[in-house]
Amino acid sequence: MHVIPPKNANMVDFPPEMPVSMLNYFSSLGLHSLYSHQAQALDELKKHCNVVITTGTSSGKSLIYQSAILQQWLQDPGSTALLLYPTKALANDQLAPFKAMEEFFIRCESTSQLRSVIYDGDTSQSERIAIRNNAQIILTNPDMLHLSMLPHHTTWKRFFSHLKYIVIDEVHSYKGVFGSHFANVMRRLLRIIHFYGGDPLIICTSATVHDAQIFVEKLLERPFVVISEDGSAHGEKKIYFYNPPIVDQQLGIRRGILEEGLKIAALSMRNDLQTLLFVRARRSVEILLRRARENLLEYSIEGYRSGYLPSERRRVEQGLKNREILCVAATNALELGIDIGGMDRVVLLGYPGSIASFLQQIGRAGRTMKASSAVFVASMDPLDQYLLQNPSYILENSPEQPLIDPQNPLILFNQLRCAAYELPFQVGERFGGLAAETLKEYLDALCVKGELVEREGRYYWIGDAYPAADISIRSISTAPFDLIVEGKKEDTHKIGEVDGESVLWMTHPGAIYLQEGETYLVRNLALEEHKVLLEKGDFPYYTNPKEQQDIEIQNTLNSTSEENIRFFFGNVTVASQVVGYDKLDWANNEIFETVPLDLPVSNLNTQAFWMVIAESTVETLRKSALWYSDPNDYGPQWEHIRQSILLRDQQRCTLCGKQGGLHVHHKKPFRTFADPLQANAASNLITLCETCHQRVEQTVRIHSGLNGLGYVFSHLAPLYLMCDLRDMGLFVEPRWKPAGYQPVVMLYDAFPGGIGLSAALYEKYNDILHNAQSVIQQCSCTFGCPACVGPVNQEFLNPKEATLALLQEILK
Questions:
Q1: What is the pTM of this model?
Q2: 304 vs 282: CA distance, rounded Å
Q3: How far is CA 805 from CA 144, 766, 792, in A?
Q4: Is the pLDDT of residue 110 over 80?
């Protein structure tokens, strides 16, 4: 347990130059002084400096920009302000303080009226015209800036030419593809503002960003002053690090985190503690809700995640704020600063992927001087187990610096199309920090593409389309798919959305889709119409998609050769396809049927880091009987033996009686025998259908040292890259054709074009390999477990020993 002691506030007087009407407004809110960091930030803004405020959660950061905007409006009623929030929900949540300002100054009979508005996809056409003509303060999101405001900037001339402040809330959210797009959207915005003669100040806020100055200056290409000394007060907070009990000592298996989370939630609710359960996946939210309804009948748990309708999410937010809802299971969709009040307890079911997210999530508890607690429940993931043994990594290290690459060629190319549509480029012009020479190469490419033409030193847009409409800044995926529950005509209704990146694996035909604890069967996936048709029902099973990957090397950018291994960094194409799915019984989690699918292939052009194991290393491990990745050679008599077993079992599956598509299975794995004759003895062979064969293989499949290396390396890499586990893909192949049929372990950026993760991995692989060896050696399991080399179900071989032997050879 770690205790954060209570802290008193450091208060200072309001600045002497603050207008009396502002002092009266703050007095009406019960505010008679400022936190020290609020006063410091306002002083820097007065000096015409851009500021980034990095004080803790619930420290009054929003009051800083509210004060600055209000004071500017009182001095110049024609001035405008643009507030950007990463989500629509956060923008809606932050409107209330500005509406309170409006109402106060109306009551004071101010000569000018302050108009603050939300501008998002739900804003009607008539409202949009009024906003363009009259609004002083606009709260929106980067998507609307990209899709609506910038492409039609001529209709926003009044607003942009009088813009004094740009506020970017939760600036740490702008990472990865989203952040790389956003950096270019800001280049476009500042280019247009400059065109209209504006020069606004920029205010950024974040409770969890490391090296804030370096990051925001890379993101926004402007100098910034950092305000980090927190003057606010907070109550005591206890942080517990909890490892669920072991249920299988030999295999090192611990009780599941969802099961433990429900127990903690039940205990919290019995003590009337408002509790928030954070999980890492959307499906986990739904499994928690389902199990809660089955086992916690006296208590109600609500869900909150992306995909729910906005009205449902607003209901949950309001229910938390007024304590009508006592417990919510949520993904990181509830991590950002939406006002839900202060939770009594926050429970993190697994590490959320970064120190920044960890701090954001535990920051949801104790937003007053009242004592609170946070519980980190470790999963069997090696990263979770490492952090449980080394909590100082979280408690003493700073949050990660969000990783962005504004110069990502795919992103930059599309953003330049948008910028050229908005304003012609002059020859020799820069685009933010992009050099004029580099910019010219892109513009010339767009001329070849037929979308630009150069005339008299300017590049003009001549394309037919309005480019922003086809470019998502959240991903490279297509538009979201509507989730439609079918019924009678009047009963057919939409229950939510699924993003284009997830639709093939999450809502493929035959999938069980979970929402708010209810189960739905996917009847049809209409790819062209962007619709998923569902049937609601009480289905006794759930589904898991089966995916196949094929990777092609485009070019190698760097390589290092050592005696037993070679390391590479380069560009690759990852072809992924959902080829089927398993049906699993809710009661025992066993596969009872496998269904094939024929769905489109998805191609990802990205960057990768890979390791190729030398043949000499493989041979050394073979001699020690610790290389489990060779294909089985059943001997020259195998086909005769196979046919005799099929005849013996009357051409039927021994378990279910099915005929056709039969396999002959070794009860004890073939490679565990020294003598093939013993392995192929009739007593060790059994006839199974494909489905039953897969079920049996779940309990005896061979987990090799190569698989173990890929597992532990990929789970430890995020610690060194300061990224989320889901930001990288893993590929393990014992005989990979592009590597001359040698074994390979590859990690690739899960973003088109790459965002620098694989490049960083190439520089840090040696440290990760040594740490991987240490993690496995220190693990108390016998054969391997999810906390070291991955889930292991067989008792015949020792993948833990095989992985350590492989690492020993690599690190010689």
A1: 0.77
A2: 9
A3: 54, 16, 17
A4: no
